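Help wanted!
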Amino acid sequence: MSYVHFPVIAVMSLFLGAFVCAIFGKNHDKLCKAVGVLDAAWVFALIALIVKPVVFDGEIISYWMGNWSPIKGWAIGIGYEIDALGAFFALIVVFTVLMSVIYSIRYMDRDDDIYNYYTLLLMMSGSVLGLVLTGDVFNMFIMIEIMTFTAVGLTCFRNRSFGALEAGFKYLVIGSMGSSMTLLGIALLYAQCHTLNMAQLASILVNNTTPTSVLALALMFTGLGVKAYIVPFHMPAADSYAVAPTSVSMVFSGMVNKAGVYAIIRLVYILFNTMDKGSMQVLLTAFGAVTMFVGVTMALAQHDFKRLLAFHSISQIGYVITAIGLGSALGVTAGLFHALNHTLFKGLLFLCAGAVLYATGTTNLDKLGGLSKKMPKTTICFLVGAFSIAGMPPFNGFASKWMVYQAAFEKAVEGGHIYFAFITVVAVVVSVMTLASFIKVTQAVFFGQCPIELQKTEEVPFSMRLPMWIMSALCLLVGVFYDFVNKWFLAPATNAVLNATNYIDKMMGNGYAAAAGVENIQVAPAAFSFWNPLTWLVLFVVVFAAVAIVILTGKKSRGAVLETAENVDGKYATFFGGEASPFSHVSGSDLFWGFKKDWKGYFSFMDNLHSGIVNDYALWVVVALAIVTVWFNVFMK
Amino acid sequence: MEILQTLLQILIFPGLLFQVVIGLLLAGIDRKVVARMQHRVGPPILQPTYDFFKLMGKETIVPAAANKTVYLLAPVVGFVGLVILGLFVPVFGTNVFGTGADLIVILYLLTVPAVCLIVGGSASGSPYAGIGISREMVTMMSYEFPLVMVLLAVSKKVGGSALAFSMADITAWQQANGCGLFHWSLVPAALAMLLVIPAEVGTKPFDVAEAETEICEGPLVEYSGAPLGVFKLNTAVKMFIMTSLFTALFLGGIDTGIVALNAVILVAIDIVITLVSMTTLNAICARLKIEHLFKFYWTIVAALAAASLILVWLGL
Amino acid sequence: MMTVNYVASAILVVMGLYTIINDKNLIKVVLGLGIVDYGVNLFIVSVGYNMGGTAPIFSISDIMANSVLFGNGGAFFVDPVPQALTLTSIVIGACVDAMALSLVVKLYQQYKTTNTDEIRRLRG
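Answered by r_m:
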């Protein structure tokens, strides 16, 4: 069977798996788990098989449902179009689902009615996969709706836990508002262009900006921004990532907000082709910068492990939006690379948080401590994830954040606007604050002294550790071999983003795009060659060897290590502490008090904004919509 | 031959051995001059060297609450990071590794020793260390912001309308146009950098992370023996690297052609900068509290660096 | 076109948004969501309306003989695509309302109140 059919088969298999779980799964837990794992693995294989022709060879798969090809140059059917960008995101989606399903095998053991969980999870995966693969704008809307419902269901899956129902309700209200705005935008587009196919819309909209299409752009941008959790719309995300079961949180942060990002890229780059306008770049980078900053400063004040990770997720998506908003080839490459890396390291961090929750029963930073001795392997994986997100070499976060800074600063120099230099500075400062936040979590959860209640914790089972190991290994490999990733995955995807002609031509027939006036921009792979990790590794090894030789040579008494406390006799005990100390672990909230005190005004303002009342969150959505509409109307005439 | 020469450059000059020797020398001079300023006799100039060798011979005690691997590895990784960083800072014409993006590499690598101190302190399990690492982290957040702006200002000034992140470009530009310090739009940046250096190194008045009188040396409280020796060595080497970085950015361009003479001039300038930025403040000022430190860096020092960035951007 | 329809749909959307922002009762927030959906549905169905057109139910031979697309001018009917979109959207609206109301029921069971000012355990 030709690989052209694989994408649709993949989407259908996920939905079929969901239905099988729903019909046959009640009281048959093992069946559900088996269906979940097999389905995810099967879909991963399918998507991996289309990666070679689509991404490496640059082909575009165009598939009309029911064979309703365009008649006389007018699209009448629903089309699935997979180019390198879609395949790139599809690969991220199926990988995340596979890891999550493997993790869920043991993680969901303590819940009942697992068949509901697997149904919803598989449906959500199917809808996100459909979203990134489709070429029809209303089909995208349907997939967004399915994604929203199933996400709400999964958020309040453990409906007796603290705040789960509330988070689900707020997610539903805000998400539904976003979907309605998107639908209104789509209706306006249809009124203007009388077609729903993205390729044809792109060719019609290319040089015609009417007030209708500007309003449609504003509505769709806000609606899709709600899905991507950019800043004024991020409050439900923080709540729902925290209360959902962790395997689902990982899927949310790895897959669901990437869907929003993908939709925004399709909207501004392919559909409307407006990224060369300075006003659009300023708007996107402004949103991105505010998202980065608000996300990371809110994270510093959190008391709950998963809520902290949720705010960091929001902040990293801010990086992606900033990079995409720059409009240059290097910017888009950096944004896509950071999206990939974010899935890897954020998924890893959420899995570690889930492991801690499974082993200890709490995610409160003030109650945890000293777990590195009880759960050493989880600690290593967590440190890998923390160093990745903080941007330490040689992990992947370093490579992609460096690309973002370079892209932003190059944009500043090339245009002469100091605004983009300011964005670069904000990005660097946010990176340092991310590091600070993760040092706080490491100290609060893994290092330090272990409280009495947690003395009995054990390491998590193997099937939960396996996805963590895989993702840590990938973090390291992608960071070291980033050149390979750039050349084979990112360059084709960037080419697909900046180059709408291939997309249009493949769906509507060759020459259509040129006839409509869409230009062809050839994009060379971004040159990014100052960081050659293999040389660095060699350098590191050489210096390390020299230092080790110096330290280890010498008499036996140098470097002798003496363990204390359990086998220390009374003579030495007085040297290790004046009096018998009570449990004095510096917990998460005790750190950074100086920083929080300096910024008291800002933090109290932010606390009042995140009030927890759903009406306030809705007000933010409407205000943002108003601002975006006014901006577009003023600048896009 | 190339490999052997590079190896010699990494390990002897201007690599490991040179950095260690000069770093310890700068640390010693700093202590002696502070003592003299405070009307004391002070330790001999070679005291840090004696301390290092003494500590290497002492017994290492690992607390029971500590994570042993991280605890023992942290100082060594920090030291290796510092040595690699030092290979990117040129010694008046001897540039071991020059890439196109030196400044970004330096900015990143400067965080590695601080993070290793933090992780090592955290891994030791002591509550004093916990407080110390949070202060160290806030200090790092404070000085990164003006430091980024200083580096951006220098790179824009040197590069003009393109980017100049590479040290070789900066050195060449200074050879052609005179030292950076002589261009008045870079003077606020130089002042800001002089104020960032003591915070990076951790001397008074910005050493709240290692406040001996309050939290018993903060992250280093449980360290003893060889790991403690390596941490103290890190501080000394960092002194050398930061002063050399300042020289390369603002006083570069001097090249007499003889490697030995270049090295001597560099050491002399480093001593002067140490005295100006670290020793004077160390002797006169009291320790700042953490919120004052944060406010200081994000208002005054950041204003200086931003002034320089704006002036450079306007083309002056 | 039908200006009245567009004005009515705009009024519905604005009223719905106002309800969501202002009303403190959970059920009223859900009603607001519903009203926004109805406004959008009214808009979609009005987009497709051609003045004087008939219902779009033809056999294929009528179309091929008489349609504008095939160059013969002729049968003038209302655009069927927005009707399909509206049907889909109505179904989605119904599902959203059902899910939201079931969440409201369980929220009331847990929190014993339907006032949004008091359902605020997750904040900050």
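OP: Thanks! One thing I noticed: Residues 3-518+530-539+587-635 of chain A form one domain.
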